[in-house]
Amino acid sequence: xxxxxxxxxxxxxxxxxxxxxxxxxxxxxxxxxxxxxxxxxxxxxxxxxxxxxxxxxxxxxxxxxxxxxxxxxxxxxxxxxxxxxxxxxxxxxxxxxxxxxxxxxxxxxxxxxxxxxxxxxxxxxxxxxxxxxxxxxxxxxxxxxxxxxxxxxxxxxxxxxxxxxxxxxxxxxxxxxxxxxxxxxxxxxxxxxxxxxxxxxxxxxxxxxxxxxxxxxxxxxxx
Length: 223
Prior knowledge:
- By secondary structure, this protein is mainly alpha-helical.
- It contains ten helices and three strands.
- It has helices spanning 13-21, 55-65, 79-110, 121-129, 135-146, 151-158, 164-175, 181-194, 200-214, 216-222, and strands spanning 5-9, 24-31, 37-44.
- Strands 1-2-3 form a three-stranded mixed beta sheet, covered by helices on one side.
């Protein structure tokens, strides 16, 4: 499939946005005045003003609705406003991660990247997210857990009660337990309770202790 290459000078976010909206499967080079080049490859553009109800259209519209925040003068905000905005942002981030989990799970199940000549779904996800090597595989694994057995964790993530990092820790911890629904569900419930007060690093350490308690034989093998 042929990809056009268009080069524009970055003079503000509106210009970038207008360029990103106008085409599908184009590759844009945004050249900064300092000579740096930033490429947006394979952008599937949708015009939010068209009021599309497709998943991509809904996501584009959500992105556009956040655009006023680009010009927010945060220095003029009170501490209360700053902290409230950060809280809301983290809830949104978690919700988007939950949406992404279901999306990635379906991309993996349908092998959608093969339709655009990608042999590996994991590599496609690594590329589209700009992640580290292997990140696409981890994303698929966690998405598979969240959308099948770890539905309680998915619900907490979707509600903004936990972060994507915490959700990944919970999934990875439970994956190491014996395949017994009662044991795994108990561990999940406990980890979700503790996630209210522990960050991902602390939750990971708790997970190790939980593994020792619920699966002492397995803990010895893992050591």
